[in-house]
Amino acid sequence: MIYKNYVVTGEDVNDDMEMQSSAYISYTLRLVYRFLFDNGFSKEKLNALHLGLQERNHVLVCYKNLMFTERFFVEIKHCNINEKINIKSYFFNSKFECCAEVTEELEWFDHVQREVIDTPKQILKYFYLHTRV
Question: What percent of the chain has pLDDT over 90?
Answer without folding.
Answer: 71
